[in-house]
Specification:
The chain is α+β, with helices and mostly antiparallel strands. It is 36% helix and 21% strand. It contains four helices and eight strands. Strands 1-6-5-4 form a four-stranded mixed sheet. Helix 1 runs antiparallel to helix 2 and helix 3 packs antiparallel against helix 4.
Length: 218
C-alpha cells in the first residue's frame, strides 16, 4: 500500500509542477497533503505490525484516516495591511475547525459539516504573513479568513507564482534549451494565432528549415 501511495505522490507532484491555475494548484496540493498523511500512516502501521510483540489483550480499533473535500472555490480582497479570503460553506462549527497559519502558507480543516470534512489550503502564499495575528471567523453561510501581511503593500495574486519569462542564470545550461522553454511558455499562454505561428517555427527548426526557432519574433 505504501508503494502505491509513493507512486501516486510522484505523479501528483509532476502534475503540480506543470499546473498553472491557482485553484488547480490548490486542489493538487491538498491531495498531496492527504496522500502524504496516508503514506505515513501506512508505513507506521506496517512498522508496528513487524516490530511489536503480539498482545493477548483485545485491540483498540484504530482511527481511520480522515477524508477531506477540497474547497477550491473562493474569493478574496485586500487592503495595504491584510488579505481576506471568503469561503462559501454552511453549517460549519467553529469548535470543529483546525487552522494552521505559517509565514508562507495556510491550512484550514472543517470537520463534520453535514457529515463531511472540508479542507482549504494554500501551500505557498504570494508574500509573507504574520501567523499570530491571522484568524478564521465562521459566519452562517461562509467562512472569512483574515491574513495580516508581514509588510504593507499590494499583492498581485493570492498564491505565489514564478516568473516564467524570467531569463535563466544557469551558465551551464544550453542557451537553445532556454529559448525552447520560452517558446513553450509562449505557446501555452498565447492565443490560437500565436500557437499556430510558434508550432510552425518549432516544426521548421526541427526539420532544419531554420536554425532559429524564434526567427520572426525579433
Amino acid at each position: 500500500m505504501a508503494d502505491e501511495y509513493a507512486l501516486d505522490l510522484e505523479e501528483l507532484r509532476q502534475l503540480q509542477s506543470i499546473a498553472k491555475r491557482p485553484r488547480v494548484v490548490s486542489l493538487i496540493s491538498s491531495e498531496i497533503l492527504n496522500l502524504e498523511k496516508l503514506s505515513t500512516d501506512a508505513v507506521t502501521a506496517h512498522a508496528s505490525q513487524t516490530s511489536e510483540p503480539i498482545s493477548t489483550q483485545a485491540g483498540v480499533p484504530s482511527t481511520p484516516a480522515l477524508n477531506y473535500v477540497t474547497l477550491a472555490s473562493f474569493s478574496w480582497d485586500q487592503d495595504s495591511d491584510k488579505v481576506k479570503i471568503y469561503l462559501s460553506l454552511e453549517g460549519v462549527d467553529q469548535e470543529k475547525m483546525e487552522s494552521e497559519f505559517k509565514t508562507m502558507s495556510l491550512d484550514i480543516k472543517m470537520h463534520d459539516v453535514q457529515g463531511k470534512n472540508y479542507r482549504f489550503t494554500i501551500p505557498k502564499l504570494n508574500k509573507a504573513i504574520v501567523p499570530e495575528k491571522s484568524k478564521v471567523v465562521v459566519k452562517p453561510t461562509r467562512i472569512i479568513v483574515t491574513l495580516f501581511k508581514a509588510s504593507k503593500g499590494n499583492w498581485l495574486d493570492l498564491q505565489f507564482k514564478e516568473d516564467k519569462l524570467k531569463p535563466s542564470v544557469d551558465k551551464d545550461k544550453d542557451p537553445m534549451a532556454g529559448i525552447m522553454d520560452l517558446m513553450k511558455n509562449m505557446y501555452e499562454e498565447g492565443d490560437d494565432e500565436m500557437k499556430k505561428t510558434i508550432a510552425k517555427a518549432w516544426t521548421d527548426a526541427r526539420s532544419g528549415k531554420t536554425a532559429d526557432p524564434l526567427k520572426g519574433y525579433r
